[in-house]
Design goal:
heterotrimer; A alpha/beta (422); B alpha+beta (167); C alpha/beta (620); B: 167 residues; alpha+beta; Alpha-Beta Plaits; two-stranded antiparallel sheet; 25% helix; globular; C: alpha/beta; Substrate Binding Domain Of Dnak, Chain:A, Domain 2; 6-stranded parallel β-sheet; 24 helices
Chain lengths: 422, 167, 620
């Protein structure tokens, strides 16, 4: 069988590894990527900009990965068309690849606001290695930067720019506070304090009206809707991403909040599968259709897609689509699941300087936020994921005594076995 | 068949000997007195908890479809040939992003003392017979290092392991 | 593979027998205990109240305080103080029994004992400030015993024994507030201080530990030694044989084991009873062979030349010879394993102290008022048991070694010609480099006797006169180091002195309470030289120690100003504060301090370096 995979990040790499692990070496695997080289960790791009890491050290897999797994890598070339009836893939350079099964793992692209000036030199995003290189090249030439967007990518970018040596970094946030999709007010304030200490300024409740150009077509500042103008030679736009679903859509495949796949990661087109940031998933908690857009999900979807491509029916369970972990200075944050629900409990533990917020719905843990220390976060995540009754554990969960919760769950689950051994 | 550290819950007295042995095995000196005299601060990767009337150790199960491997953004978390899941000694280095901490259902991945590295059971503590330090240290035989099926055959079911696939 | 459990060939043979017979010994149980609790090894667990038990994570990862808030430093210090208190209590309670016996004898209530050393009685009476003029021995003895009993309970001022030390030493104790008061009081106070919510200052706790130990060294132990001498005779050099080979193939073998000489003295007398000997012969035995073990063994070997079958770790091995008709025990260092082991043979395990009962033991309580009769009863039990011996299961190792023991202070002075001068001269002209006291137990953590024998050999080879008590002394007996002939193993200077005086290079000074004899000599030397004990070129070592008594000993030796090397690691490393107090700060406070060195050859270097430092400081 001939497998072709478009995309070389988390989903693509996980698919390749799984195809080899479960399918052995009798199949041909080709990976097509518009990225210039091997897979890298997208989440570490801010570290690259910050100068804390080199390009080599953010590689996801070692250089010999493709050779070792006997995979043909066509790097630096985009796929431009899928012909599902012919089972062929057309590349940018005119080449055509025949496939038996195709995996679309094309990822997502940053959303740019519909305002004047986004095309200017100095207006960047931080999604790819190319973006990171471009940013790094600009940093020494400017004195200040504006980051548009108070989400995870924006804040990481802002911190990276400060660490890279920029004197002035201002984050423009549409919402009244940062990380509005991940954190509540208290946790956001903890993160904000760390970032302010790191020398970052914030402007809330503000929208960008335009990116202003100087005489040489370079960015000189960012104009806000309220009339303020922030001088800056560099702007990073971090307003979320949009799935790269165009290839499938053009070929006649179904697309919603991303490429629509069934429970076995199949698109509506025969023998075409999709995984990663380009697809639409159903949130496990809300039942809403949303774009996937999480590294962890991309990885697991890549694994599931590969197994299904090999003919092993592996239904992919509805994922948690809000699953975030980050570190800002001395504050680690983890945010999973819903931010609101029937019962909300919150507690700040001054001894461990940790804030915990729990969201319960119907006696089940529907979401949580940890800010400060995040040890044991996975136990909360497992509770959210499993949907088991958790109200009885609220105290332990609130106080961070989760080891005992993990144990108790296990005892309860298998009481029969517990009584029978020995 | 890969071996695992299995737990006979009714035997655990909560003495924390496994925890201490784990920390010592991950110290520079490699001995309790040596580590103490050197002022080292090694961290344990096995934890004693109490649930109801039971005390029991909780440690990494080296899951089949390990969520920590999926979650690792650096590509550091990987599975070794013997089944050990670890973020050290692989192709990439841990970046302390805590993604693995966020997804580990047992809560047994933690940060190191400086917050620069995720620590977990790496089985870098096995003696010449291949037995992990925590198992050697257990005075009551509550910890058993064995192949899962063999252990089941002895009718000593490991609750943790059974529950794993369901969590 | 080489068996590293012992260097004693007799022990190694018996361990093989034990394995063949499927019998368990302390070494097996030690292995079964591996790995031992790390919190315990570091002294970091506390069970002093029922909010606990608590333990402190030594790596700063887990809990750093107990429920009450006690830190690792506090817990380690409290635990150490309790160990000292237990050790001091053991020695001192032994001492009290001896004094009580003397009082009973003087009062005419106890008839089987007599006062054997009247001149020592008189000397002690003078030391206690009692008028002896015109009084009978009985009256003086009674007054002395009563005065000595006063040392235990509430009294004004300080212990009598401390007057033996140089003024400088007294001043150091006074300044630190550690001059020992009542013997019982210090132990009680130690228990009080370590009770929940009392003393929580590590240094204050350790200082009281020193005071408590001093009440042992210059109190309980000292009384045990001196009053035993009065009652049973002051030891003089005597020859005898040692090791398991002293057991007889065809006589009724009776092993006395424990610490107090009260019963064993009577057993020694009764074993010579012709009626009992003929009773033994009537059972087909060639006679009665009474042998000792541990410190009861030491007590009767140094007074009567009774053979000593071995030291602490050989108590089980003696039973495994299959040749013991009876093991008779009193108190201390008796393994509770003996009952079950004896049951595997015909051996009767007989306990005699109301304070010390054991599983599987036949209890024949010692009645001081009828002690000889008790002894006869016990010996009869053994004789009756002789026909039950299965000669096919008997394995007695051939190993024996001769010893010369019994160097009490008086005997030593006698050997020196009545004064310490020859010794002082020899030290001054460097024929004797210094003096080291080797004491203490066996411990399955280290090869039996390896550290004792090798440290003693290393020291005498470099002209350090070695004085020993307890199980250390028995190790040397078995290794032949207690003979004048062993002078050939000594350095030229020490060898010359030994040959001139007819002394062994390693002097057996008695049981573990008799470390008070060593203290007395050290104090006398210091006074002669007009210096403090801490100024002398002397050192102590407990190479294979295991008991709480050894902790008390170590503490009072150090508190008396003597540098001491421990050969097994004490449970204090969980606290830098306590470890530092014991190994460094103690030097400034009391002159003596501890070092821990498990390798006897390195320990020898430490001892010699210390001795050389002290010589240099004295300008000799």
């Amino acid at each position: 069988m001939r497998f072709v995979i478009i995309g070389n990040s988390a989903a693509g790499v996980a698919a390749v590894e799984t195809l080899r692990r479960l399918g052995g070496y009798r199949h041909r695997i080709t990976v097509v990527s518009d990225e210039p080289a091997g897979a890298y960790s997208r989440c570490l791009l801010p570290d690259l900009v910050a100068g804390k890491r080199t390009e080599n050290s953010i590689n996801l897999r070692p250089a010999e990965f493709y050779r070792r797994l006997e995979v043909e890598l066509l790097a630096g070339v985009a796929a431009v068309e899928v012909r599902p009836r012919e089972k062929r893939l057309v590349l940018q350079d005119g080449r055509e690849l025949a496939y038996d099964r195709l995996l679309v793992a094309t990822g997502a692209s940053p959303v740019l606001p519909a305002v004047p000036g986004t095309e200017l030199e100095g207006v960047c995003t931080l999604r790819t290695l190319r973006d990171a290189r471009r940013l790094s090249a600009l940093v020494p030439r400017v004195s200040g930067a504006v980051v548009v967007g108070g989400g995870l990518v924006g804040l990481k970018a802002a911190l990276a720019l400060r660490q890279a040596g920029l004197g002035r970094v201002t984050v423009v946030v549409t919402s009244p506070r940062l990380l509005i999709r991940q954190l509540d007010e208290r946790a956001a304030a903890m993160v904000e304090r760390e970032l302010i200490n790191a020398g970052i300024d914030f402007i809330y409740n503000a929208r960008v009206k335009a990116f202003a150009a100087g005489p040489k077509g370079r960015l000189t500042g960012v104009e806000l809707e309220d009339g303020r103008e922030l001088p800056a030679g560099l702007a990073v736009v971090a307003k979320g991403v949009r799935p790269n679903s165009g290839l499938v859509e053009k070929a006649g495949g179904k697309v919603g909040q991303g490429i629509v796949v069934d429970g076995n990661m199949r698109t509506s087109l025969e023998d075409i599968y999709a995984a990663g940031d380009c697809i639409q998933v159903t949130d496990r908690l809300t039942g809403q259709k949303v774009n996937s857009a999480l590294w962890t999900l991309a990885f697991e979807q890549g694994r599931y897609a590969a197994a299904n491509m090999l003919g092993m029916a592996r239904p992919y369970p509805a994922p948690l689509t809000r699953l975030n972990s980050a570190r800002f200075g001395g504050v680690d944050v983890v945010s999973v699941g819903n931010l609101e629900g029937e019962e909300v409990l919150a507690h700040y533990d001054p001894l461990s300087r940790t804030y915990r917020r729990l969201v319960f719905s119907g006696g089940r843990l529907a979401g949580f936020i940890l800010a400060g220390r995040v040890d044991g976060a996975g136990v909360y995540t497992a509770l959210v994921k499993s949907g088991r009754p958790a109200w009885a554990y609220r105290r332990q969960l609130l106080e961070g005594r989760v080891g005992s919760v993990a144990l108790d769950l296990l005892f309860k689950r298998d009481k029969g076995a517990h009584n029978s051994y020995e | 068949m890969p071996k695992e550290v299995l737990i006979r819950y009714d035997r655990c007295l909560g003495c924390r000997s496994c925890q201490l042995a784990c920390a010592v095995a991950h110290s520079g000196a490699g001995s309790l007195l040596g580590a103490v005299l050197n002022g080292e601060r090694p961290r344990a990767r096995i934890f004693i908890h109490q649930a109801g009337g039971h005390k029991a150790p909780l440690n990494c199960r080296h899951c089949q479809d390990a969520p920590c491997i999926d979650a690792c953004i650096a590509g550091a978390m990987h599975r070794q040939e013997d089944g050990t899941v670890t973020n050290v000694g692989g192709d990439q280095q841990c970046t302390a992003c805590w993604m693995c901490v966020m997804v580990c259902p047992y809560g047994v991945i933690r940060s190191d003392a400086d917050g620069t590295l995720a620590l977990k059971c790496d089985r870098e503590c096995r003696d010449e017979k291949g037995v992990p330090a925590c198992v050697r240290a257990c005075p009551t035989g509550a910890l058993v290092y064995d192949e899962v099926d063999e252990y089941s055959d002895k009718r000593r079911l490991d609750v943790l392991n059974r529950a794993l696939s369901n969590l | 593979m080489k068996d590293t459990r012992s260097i004693d060939p007799a022990s190694l043979q018996m361990l093989k027998v034990a394995r063949d017979e499927g019998l368990e010994t302390a070494w097996d149980r030690y292995l079964a205990q591996q790995p031992q609790c790390g919190f315990g090894e570091l002294g970091l667990c506390c069970r002093n109240c029922n909010m606990g038990p608590c333990r402190i994570d030594p790596f700063g990862d887990g809990p750093q305080k107990g429920v009450c808030g006690a830190t690792g430093d506090i817990i380690v210090a409290r635990n150490l103080l309790r160990m000292i208190a237990a050790g001091a209590a053991a020695h001192s309670d032994h001492g009290r029994d001896i004094v009580e016996t003397l009082r009973g004898v003087a009062a005419g209530e106890i008839r089987d004992y007599t006062i054997k050393d009247e001149s020592k009685l008189m000397a002690l009476a003078r030391e206690f400030g009692l008028s002896t003029e015109g009084e009978t021995v009985q009256v003086i003895a009674k007054k002395l015993a009563e005065a000595a009993l006063e040392e235990f309970g509430t009294r004004k001022g300080y212990l009598q024994g401390i007057n033996r030390v140089p003024v400088k030493r007294k001043e150091i104790w006074e300044k630190l507030g550690i001059t020992p008061r009542g013997i019982d009081r210090e132990v009680v106070e130690a228990m009080h201080r370590t009770h929940f919510g009392v003393d929580n200052d590590p240094a204050n706790l350790i200082l009281h530990g020193l005071r408590c130990s001093l009440s042992d060294g210059w109190g309980g132990s000292l009384l045990a030694t001196e009053f035993s001498d009065v009652l049973f005779g002051t030891p003089r050099p005597v020859r005898g044989r040692s090791n398991l080979g002293v057991l007889s193939k065809d006589a009724v073998n009776i092993l006395v084991h424990g610490h107090e000489p009260v019963l064993s003295e009577m057993l020694v007398a009764a074993a010579k009873d012709l009626a009992l000997i003929s009773a033994a012969r009537a059972k087909g035995a060639s006679g009665i062979n009474l042998v000792g073990m541990c410190c009861t063994g030491n007590e009767i070997l140094m007074r009567h030349g009774v053979p000593v079958a071995g030291n602490f770790l050989q108590q089980e091995l003696a039973i495994i010879t299959g040749a013991l008709e009876a093991v008779v025990v009193d108190v201390q260092c008796i393994m509770p394993a003996l009952g079950q082991l004896a049951a595997c043979y015909h051996t009767k395990f007989i306990s005699t102290s109301p304070k010390a009962k054991f599983p599987g033991a036949l209890h024949i309580p010692l009645d001081e008022h009828n002690a000889l009769e008790t002894a006869r009863k016990i010996i009869l039990q053994a004789i009756e048991n002789y026909p039950n011996r299965d000669q096919n299961r008997v394995y007695i190792p051939e190993e024996t070694a001769e010893y010369v023991a019994g160097f009490s202070v008086e005997a030593l002075l006698n050997a020196l010609g009545g004064t310490l001068d020859p010794l002082i001269e020899a030290v001054k002209n460097k024929k004797i480099r210094g003096i080291a006291a080797l004491v203490g137990c066996n411990n399955p953590k280290v090869t039996q006797d390896h550290s004792h024998v090798n440290l003693a050999k290393a020291l005498i080879a470099r002209d350090v006169l070695v004085v020993e008590t307890g199980c250390a002394a028995i190790a040397s007996a078995k290794a032949g180091l207690l003979l004048p002939e062993a002078a050939e193993l000594a350095g030229a200077g020490l060898a010359e002195v030994c040959r001139a005086l007819g002394l062994p290079p390693v002097l057996h000074m008695g049981s573990c309470v008799d470390i008070s004899r060593i203290l007395t000599v050290a104090a006398a030397l210091a006074r002669e030289l007009g210096v403090d004990i801490a100024d002398l070129p002397v050192a102590g070592a407990a190479p294979e120690w295991m008991s709480e008594k050894a902790v008390s000993i170590g503490a009072y030796v150090v508190a008396s100003g003597i540098f001491t090397v421990l050969g097994t690691v004490p449970p204090v490393l969980g606290s830098n504060v306590v470890a530092d107090l014991l190994t460094r700060q103690a030097k400034d406070l009391v002159g003596g301090y501890f070092a821990v060195e498990t390798d006897p050859f390195k320990a020898a270097e430490l001892v010699i370096a210390h001795i050389d430092d002290k010589r240099a400081a004295m300008g000799i």
